[in-house]
Structure formats: structure tokens, C-alpha cells
Amino acid sequence: MMSNRKRKASSLEEPACMLCGQADNDPNIFGRTFGQGWIRAHEFCLIFANIFYAETLSRDGTVGIPLDDITRKVKQANQKQCCVCGERGAAINCAESSCGRSFHLPCAKDGQCVTQFFGQHRSFCFEHCPRQTAVTAPSKGTTCVICLGPVGDSLSYHTLVCPACKHAWFHRGCIQQQALTGNSCFRCPGCRDSLLFLVEMSIIGIQIPDRKPEQEDNDAYASLLQRHRRCNAIRCRHPEGRDQADIRGPWQLIVCSSCAAEGTHRECSYLSNTTATWECDSCAGLGTGKRQSAV
């Protein structure tokens, strides 16, 4: 299992993090970048390498980092080979006591490793990382409720499901992007569950910052959580297509009351104007999709 790690900085470029060897400074991946002089360390590399630092500013206005601890950790890491990219200098160890695997923070995703951004900030290799348990695998043709791309036919590191409704499937990358808006509005894009959803996503390695979203991020997140706007009936009867709908009448779009991830025109599922709720095939039982309640 090899990772396409970005090259380290040369002597003429920005100095690289001493723990992962990368000069990149994307805060969504590495957190903040701390340094003293030409010594650099990423915030998340420090955290997952179990190096504690104090939030004290040095004379030049940068956060002070424990150079002795970093130097000691680097020496130890140089004796270990990353289980993903094969290079030495892997400072993050698998939390499983019987496992000797280590990896670089930037290699975690490529190697299907998990880093938990809460509590003891534990890390796990691809073999020992926590996994979801779903009652059933996604049915053929299931799409990500966020990007609408296919999710495959099995639960995996990259394919996740809401632990509450168990019907909303999504890609790890898609839900991670939503989570970056902050824990105050992070929830299942389908059923909107927040508590159970947030806990499980944290356990399986989704980074959920403890912050309120910026206004523009909030608007973007709200846009992602808009109600489903497409008819998913096997045969859509609307003359202008599945993406068209009216406010009321036979072409009003009714969204599944359980998962909110599928919808149908009243006409396409033979729903009367008095029908208030409807469930899709997945929620009502495959082949039915007719569980409904009248007003």
C-alpha cells in the first residue's frame, strides 16, 4: 500500500514539518503550523504524535513548541517505516497495543488509517481502525446523498452510512467537507440526526471542529442540506423530467419521511392530494415504496 506523498521542501523553500516531512500548511489537514526560527511542526502532527505544547507566544509572535520533545520523537520515528508510503520518519503509532505499525499524518487517508480528533486523540492503522456496522449493504445504484455519485455495493473506509436512519449513504470525503463547517450544525444530510451521527463520525475519524460556521460556510452548508429535489420513481411521468416539480397538485414532490434522501411526484407513485407522508422503497420495504399516511 503506497501513498503519493508530496515532496519535502528544499533548503530554498519553506521549511518542512519535522514530524511528517511536508511543507504543506493546509489547516484542514494539518491544523496550524507552529515554528521557531526555521523549525516547523504541524499542530495535528504534534497532537497525534502525543507531543504536548503550551499555547504561549514566543518573542516573534509564534506559538512556542517543545523542541526537545520533537527532537526525541523524530529520532524515534526515524527508526520506523510508514505502513502506507514505506518511508521512514513515521511519528504516529497505532493505538492497538499489539500493533507495531506507524504512519505519517498525510498518509493516513491514503492508507485507510483513522485519527480521532477528540479525547485521547488515538490513531489506528488500516487493520485496527474502528469500522461502522450496518444492517445491510447499499443496494445496487445507491448514490451519495451529498454529491450524488455512486457509493459502491459495500460498506468500506470510503463509503459510510448514517448510524441513525441507516439509509443515507455518503463518501468519506464528502461528509468530511461538510464537517469542517463545525459541530454546531453538523448532522446527517438525510434524516438530520445530530447526536448519534456526530459521535459515530468522530469515532471513525471525521474531523469535526468545535466552532460555529462562518456565515458563508453556514450558507453553503444549508445549501447542501436542502430538501431532496428529484423524483426517484422507477418511471417518472413528468413531461419535463425528474427535476421539475410544482408547489402543489399531481406534480408536487413528496420526500421520503424517513430518510429524506429520495422523492417522488404524487402522480408517479399514485399518491392522492390528501397524502401527507410517503416512504421510499428502502425505508418501507423493497418493492413497496407505498407506505403513506393521509392528512
Mind explaining what this structure looks like?
The protein has 295 residues and is an alpha+beta fold. Helices cover 18% and strands 12% of the residues. It has seven helices and twelve strands. A hairpin with a 7-residue loop joins strand 7 (159-161) and strand 8. Residues 287-291 have low confidence and may be disordered.
Tally the helices.
7
Gross morphology is elongated
Strand content: 5-15%
Q: Which secondary-structure class do the elements indicate?
A: alpha+beta
Brief rundown of the structure:
This protein is 18% helix and 12% strand. By secondary structure, the chain is α+β, with helices and mostly antiparallel strands.
Please describe the topology of this protein.
Elements: H1 27-30, E1 33-36, E2 39-42, H2 43-48, H3 67-77, E3 92-93, E4 102-103, E5 114-115, E6 123-124, E7 159-161, E8 169-171, H4 172-179, H5 195-203, H6 215-224, E9 253-255, E10 263-265, E11 275-278, H7 281-284, E12 292-294
Antiparallel strand pairs: 1-2, 3-4, 5-6, 7-8, 9-10, 11-12
